[in-house]
Amino acid sequence: MVVLWLVVLLAIRGMVFAHKGLGIHEIVLGVVPLLFIYAPVWVCNWRKEDSYAYRLFVPNFSDWQAWWRATRLALVLNVGVWSWFIPLYYWYYTHGLEIIWGIANKAYIGRLPEELLLTILYQIFYVALPEEFFYRGYFQTRLNELYPRKWKVWGAKMGMGAVYANLFFAFGHSIVQFQWWHFATFFPGMLFAWARERSNGVLSGALFHACCNIGIVMLDTAFGLRSPL
């Protein structure tokens, strides 16, 4: 698994460098979600295992009940997280920067990303779904085979497999492109892991994952931390 993780993340790092460093057309980045989705499937085929046993698929659009169940669970998670995170975020940037760090606070300017629909589609289909396939669909399930799920958390069986999969998830970001705060992605990742175990699929976690990313983009833009373009 470590070899698979390193090969995929280093390949993605190479594609990012090819685009940003060598000026190659951004179409090369289209391979990134394909790697996240199909690399585990290739490994399953190589090991003569059924990838469907890992729930590495999304329900048919005609299966509205499965989509509703996944959406309902994602909605519950969104309400549970954003109800306290948004006020905390607002306080931190309007008051906390000066109190905690002694630097000027930020003003709420209320801007939204110029291409909000594109941002939503990008976060769902390019980022969240592929990453959930890779980390929660494959890695977490494989690690569960090694580390039995001994804990019952809000109706879902959890184990150290979820913890280790999220360490791969958090530090995998920094292999592609280092940011000091990447370690913090471990914590929402545990909610994605819980959603995977609670629903026995990757869709609800992917929807919540996308909402987390979209929400942060919108908040950062609203406070001028990110360009709306």
Please tell me about this protein's structure:
The chain is mainly alpha-helical and 229 residues long. It has one domain. The protein contains seven helices and two strands. It has a two-stranded antiparallel sheet with strand order 1-2. Strand 1 (151-153) and strand 2 (156-158) form a beta hairpin. Helix 4 (116-146) crosses helix 5 (160-176) and helix 6 packs antiparallel against helix 7. The longest helix is centred in the middle third of the chain and has 38 residues, at 64-101. It is globular and about 55 Å long.
Summed up:
This protein has 229 residues and is mainly alpha-helical. It has helices at residues 2-20, 31-46, 64-101, 116-146, 160-176, 186-199, 203-222, and strands spanning 151-153, 156-158.
What sort of overall outline do the alpha carbons produce when their principal axes are compared? globular
Low-confidence regions: none
How many helical stretches? 7
Main β-sheet, spatial strand arrangement: 1-2
The residue-averaged pLDDT reads 93
Report the sheet-strand fraction. Answer: under 5%
Task: Quickly count the domains.
Answer: 1
**Count of individual beta strands:** 2
Helicity level, as a percent range? 55-70%
Instruction: Sketch the topology as an H/E string, one letter per element.
Output: HHHHEEHHH
Question: Biggest sheet, in brief?
Answer: 2 strands, antiparallel
Which value, in Å, is the CA radius of gyration?
Answer: 19 Å
Q: What structural class do helix, strand and pairing data support?
A: mainly alpha
